[in-house]
Amino acid sequence: MFKIYFLTAIRSLVRNKSYSILNIAGLALGITCSILLFLVIQYQLSYDGFHTKADRIYRLVVSFPETNFNTPASHFPLAANMRSNSNLGFEEVTQIKGDVGAQINIPAKGTATGKKFLVEENIGFIEPSFFNVFNFNTGAVDVKSQFSEPNVVILTQTLADKFFPGENVVGKVIRYNNQYNLKVVSVMPDMPGNTEFPFVMLVSYETIRKTLPTDWGNLSSDHQTFVVLPEKLPVAAAETNVNQFVRKHAQSEIPEKGILYSLQPLEDIHYNPNFYGAFAQTPITKELIWAMAIVGIVLLLTACINFINLATAQAIRRAKEVGVRKVMGSSRTQLVVQFLCETLLIVLCATFLSVILTELALPYLNTLLDLQITFSLFDDKVLLLFLLVQTILVTLFAGFYPAFVLSSFQPITALRSRMSVQRFGGISLRQVLVVMQFTICQVLIICTLLVNEQMNFFRNKSLGFNKEAVITVFLPQSTGDKIQPLRQELLSNPAIREISFASDAPSSGNISYGNFFYNHAAKDADFQTHKKFVDPYYFSLFDMKFLAGKAYPNGDSIHYMVINDTMRRKLGLKTPEDAIGKHLSLGDRRFAGSIVGVVADFHQASLASPIEPIIMTKNPEAYSVISAKIDMTQQKEALQHLEKVWEKVYPDDVFNYKYLDESIAEFYEDEARQNTLFKVFSLIAIFIGCLGLYGLVAFMAAQRTKEVGIRKVLGASVFNITVLFSKEFIKLVLIAFVIAVPIAYYLMNLWLQDFTYRISLGYSAFLLAGVATLTIALLTMSTQAIKAALTNPVISLKSE
């Protein structure tokens, strides 16, 4: 029986080629979007789920309740002190120090010359206990015991092939940042993409232990501590123990009330942007994941609505077929099954096409979202189950209403072809479906326009400093004694206008917090501050505005301080002038001096974050970045001169530079990706919506063929008939607009709350979306309306 149903379905689809193509195309687009979004969601939810202790691994994170600032950093002495105290009850404790990028030199051997490489990916300095906490494949060798010693390293297969192509890597030596000679003890597979530890090298923590601070006054987001909780230890009790422990050991080195430790589950790290770490992957909120799921469902729903409209538009042409079948003895149930089989066949064809489209689109999606999703249909049982369930649901949802309508025709009425609109199931439902489609379209268009507006706001908002025509070059580790000669040589070329050395640029992902003492107080302040070490030329190069005082002098051994206006307010000083002459000491009081200047606030990170208090002072040993203001009309000459001087001063290091405005733009890569996705989804939703509208207009044209003929005989013009068909749909689009506006307003207001600095939701984006949708709808309707209006009235009025 089912064989007959499917053969009949195939004949019907072949007979109505245009109808079949439109339906398959619409459903294929919707199903493709749903598959791609399912793959993204599946990937995002899989982060670090492969560790056997994943449900018991926690990261110790720090919050500053008074400033509402959070960091994944932990104090440097914390892990060692915790391990020596068994009363805390942790099963394992390990600390990780991350490094983003490194200079790697391969020493010369025999007559061969040495090689140098720049590794820009993440590098992890780990303890032996790291292997007890996490389950990464570190190769065939048991390396745990070796990581209790300094100067050992594990390379990923990609780096091993890059450094020593075709050679046995184990036992080789590489030089790290011209400081450490590291022995390769193993080669590991590349880290999976779905981990928060995307390291390309694992170096023993002992290598750098002596260079790290030993006091409790410093925090750095690239230094993190992880613990494994015993199954019976409650998280709340563990947090209480840690905070009491820190208070006891840190004593007066950290603010008494301004800091709070908590335990963040490993499974929460990827979804919590409040504790974004220096070496972790870019976080994605659970809300955004749910939003992607909803978008996938909505696009699939739009495709199903399109199918229903097209199917019901074709129903009147099949009225006689239904009548004949009923006269020959077909029951309503048999007709319903017949039409559901047709729908299933269309859905299967669309699914097959969508699998091909997914295979083609996935590389572009991976590039856009910076993911490593693989598509293996028959190896992914969850994906197969998803496709099976989706096929059944789409068939039932898209096919049930047309099947119900078609099977409800009375034989005599059907054979006479006198089906009325009301008999056909009621125009009101189709009106509702069209309104739903265009509501979805307009919500997506409004969101796209507003996201784009926010992105333009990011690009154009003043950051409190001048980022234009600035190149940043990362310095090797030891640079202090070379600063002045290097500066003079760089400035010898007129293409280089200004040079400054600093720990980092004004806006960067490198955030260093620390405690400080104000005005010779015996106790440190009750809040911590950003620290930047910068030379005196830093302020003029970035055009920073002084509200009071001036930059500190160059070459003086005495330390002076410059603060921002937020720091001035946090200190309780009424005016910038009141800050001049006040005394500040950083951390262990090694850097102390009077305030000589107050600069206007500038953004130290993304506009999603508030401006924090900051102290700037000199420290040549901490300078890690050269900032060069160049003449953009001599850009090529400037870069050539920079590289030439670099090769002379640092012959063993790779010259690597970035434009500052490009670095700042990286803060908003996620938002830019969301913007691109919104644009793509909006176009797909509009296209599918137009197919549905096309189907509804086709239905109306078929229903009103004789009416059009009579109107033409009575003198109606093509324009009059086009307006006749269009006015009803204009109403539907306007109703959709009224519904879409509050929905889009709510969603975008929710999204914008994540940004401290954001646009206001004006009316322009909403009106533009309404006008755009109405224009697209009118163009779609006019094609069918004009076709109906141009039909010869003699043909229209012929008797059946």
Summarize the topology.
Elements: H1 2-15, H2 17-44, E1 57-64, E2 69-71, H3 78-83, E3 92-106, E4 115-126, H4 130-133, E5 152-156, H5 157-163, E6 173-176, E7 180-188, E8 199-204, E9 218-220, E10 223-228, H6 235-250, E11 260-265, H7 266-269, H8 286-315, H9 319-327, H10 332-369, H11 381-407, H12 411-415, H13 427-460, E12 470-474, H14 483-490, E13 496-502, E14 512-514, E15 516-518, E16 529-533, H15 538-541, E17 546-549, E18 560-564, H16 565-570, H17 576-579, E19 583-586, E20 591-599, E21 614-617, E22 625-630, H18 635-649, E23 657-659, H19 660-665, H20 669-703, H21 705-713, H22 718-752, H23 764-789, H24 793-796
Task: Produce a short descriptive summary.
The protein is 47% helix and 17% strand. The chain is an alpha+beta fold and 800 residues long. Keywords: Cell membrane, Membrane, Transmembrane, Transmembrane helix.
